[in-house]
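In this section we walk through a basic example: taking a raw amino acid sequence and producing a predicted 3D structure, encoded as C-alpha cells. The instruction is simple. Fold the sequence below.
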Amino acid sequence: MKKASFKYYDLFLAAAALSLLISNLAATKLIAVGPLILDGGAILFPLAYIIGDVLTEVYGYRYARRAIWAAIGGMLVGVLIFTIVRYLPYPDAYTSQAAFDAVLGFFPRIVLASIAAFLVGEFLNSYVLAKLKVRDGGKHLWRRLVGSSAVGQLFDTVVFCLVAFAGVLTGWDMLNYIVVGYLFKLGVEIVMLPVTYRIIKKLKKVEGVDAYDKRTDFTPLSVSLTK
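The resulting C-alpha cell sequence is shown next.
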C-alpha cells in the first residue's frame, strides 16, 4: 500500500500512546479482587491492543508498527521526565517526596517491563492478524481479532508480569497474577468485539482503505510507511 493521508490515523496513534502511558502509571498499584490479583493497568491496557487490531486491520502492519514505536517513545519521555523530577532538590515545605518515590520511583521498572512486553506482544499481535487476513482473504474477522490477541496478550502478560513484579510476587501469587491478567485482558477484547467491528467497518468506509499485507516487510525495526 502506498503512503497516503488519512483522516483519523493520527488520532488512533495518539490514543495508542496515551493508553500505554496511562496504563503503565496505573500498573504501579496491585489490585486484589477477592483471591484474584491484577494491576491497575489492566483496566485500560486492553484498549492498546484493540487499537492495534484496528490499525492493522484497516491501515496495515506498517501503520500499526509506527504507532507501536510512537507509544514506546511516549513512555520513554515520560520515564525520563519523572526520573529527572524525582531527583531534583525540593524545599522543606514539600512533604510528599516519599510518596512520589514510592509510586513513580517504581515507574522505570514498570516501563522497562512494558516496553519488553509490548514489543513482543503487540508486534506478534499485528503480525498474526495481518497474516491471517491474507490467508483468509479478509473473511472471518472475529477469528483474527481473537486469535491475534490471544497470542499477543499471552506473551505480553507473561513478560510484563515477570519483569515488573519478580521478587514482589512469587509462587502462586505470580501464577495467579499472570493467569488472571491474561484472561481478564483477553476477555475484555472479546466483549468489545461488537464495538471493534463497528469501528473497523466505519473506518474502512471513511478512509477508503482495507489493507492487505501481501508484500510487507514485517521487520519491527522500522517506522517506514512505504515498505
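Looking at the output, two observations stand out. Strands lie at 30-33, 36-39. The mean pLDDT is 93. In the next section we compare this with other chains.
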